[in-house]
Specification:
- By secondary structure, the protein is of the alpha+beta class.
- It has nine helices and seven strands; from the N terminus they run H-H-H-H-H-H-E-H-E-E-H-E-E-H-E-E.
- Strand 6 and strand 7 form a beta hairpin.
- The two termini are 16 Å apart.
Length: 358
């Protein structure tokens, strides 16, 4: 999911934003109260101060957007500060000229109005440019913060996409590994002329129709995994009916928990291929899935040949499964493979009890 950035306001919405107007109103009120003593009547001059403040805000916003291109030697912040400094006396002239006063005369003919005009200009020129500079610094900090957030979001998205690509690559490696192993089992029956070969092949086709679409899904449930495992073990039992037995112990509350595709099947297939199949007398596979609060324990035990030095006891599937678990759950999942006594292997998978769709 890509990050959605809030569009930046422009035009009048930017020039006369409510934060800017609120700041201008606050500064105007402060200056008005400070100038009350020398500029009676106070009630009439409050509007003049507000008009001057609005003029400064308008100039700041105007030169923030216009002109769109500036010469290389002119920085926009300089233009904005200069615009505020020019707008204050010009707006003061307009306010004192157009707004009526008690005397009904031009402001330059009334002594106390001339004094107020001068005081407001001096105060505005002392305060206005500094406020503009402060606003520019705040804008730069906010822009840098927004850029940092945008970069963090983009980096997180790229990392997520890289993890997804890595996970899909690993799942693509699992698919042929599993399919070739299963087809090799069918080929062994055909080569031996077993009358069970057609039956096993039909069962394999039915199984693959259900299994293959799930190989490239991002996640599945333990219930779906158990259905696949049961079908797989039925196939293997048809191939070696006197050498393979199995039992399933499943908590009903664990069936809806999510896991990467082919997780449980990888453990079971590894037990069959590296444990039961090489053993002359075969063996028994015990599959247990239990939920314990916020954790889920999956245990696959077999009575096969055990961890042998010639093969290391681990297939490609288990190594790939560890990597897939790391990509999906990080350090919240673990896979432990240990040898059983007197023989056999126990694979224990500890997962977060995470519901599908959560």
């Amino acid at each position: 999911m890509s990050a959605t950035m809030t569009p930046k306001p422009h035009g009048l919405a930017l020039m006369l934003g409510w934060r800017r107007l609120l700041l201008a109103f606050g500064v105007a009120v402060v200056l008005w109260r400070l100038l009350v003593v020398g500029c009676p009547p106070a009630s009439a001059l409050g509007v003049h101060v507000l008009v001057i403040g609005l003029g400064a805000v308008f100039a700041f916003g105007l030169f923030e957007q216009w002109p769109r291109r500036l010469p290389a030697w002119l920085a926009r912040w300089v233009l904005q500060v200069f615009g505020v400094a020019v707008a204050i006396p010009l707006t003061a002239v307009a306010a004192f000229s157009w707004l009526p006063n008690v005397e009904g005369l031009p402001f330059w003919e009334v002594e106390h109005l001339r004094g107020c005009f001068t005081a407001m200009n001096v105060a505005g020129l002392l305060v206005g440019p500094w406020i503009a500079l402060g606003a520019l610094v705040r804008q730069k900090e906010a822009f840098a913060h927004d850029q940092a957030l945008a970069f963090d979001l983009e980096r997180s998205e790229l990392e997520r996409q890289a993890l997804d690509a890595r996970l899909h690559l690993l799942q693509a490696q699992v698919a042929p590994h599993f399919l070739f192993n299963t087809l090799a089992n069918v080929q062994a029956l055909v080569d031996a002329g077993s009358p069970q070969a057609p039956t096993v092949l039909r069962a394999l086709i039915a199984y693959l129709r259900a299994a293959v679409p799930r190989l490239h899904e991002a996640s599945t449930t333990l219930g779906q995994e158990l259905d696949l495992v049961r079908a797989y073990l039925e196939l293997m039992h048809m191939r070696m009916p006197d050498r393979l037995n199995y039992t399933l112990h499943i908590d009903d509350g664990a069936r809806a928990l999510t896991c990467p595709p082919i997780t449980l099947l990888t453990l079971v297939e590894n037990a069959v291929r590296h444990g039961i199949d090489p053993a002359e007398e075969g063996g028994h596979i015990d599959i247990e899935v239990r939920r314990h609060g916020e954790r889920c324990l999956v245990r696959v035990s077999d009575g096969g040949v055990g961890l042998r030095a010639t093969t290391g006891g681990l297939g490609t599937g288990l190594s790939t499964l560890r990597e897939r678990l790391r990509l999906v759950f990080g350090d919240r999942a673990s896979l432990c493979v240990s040898e059983r006594q007197p023989h056999g292997v126990c694979s224990e998978l500890d997962l977060p009890a995470q519901m599908a769709g959560a």
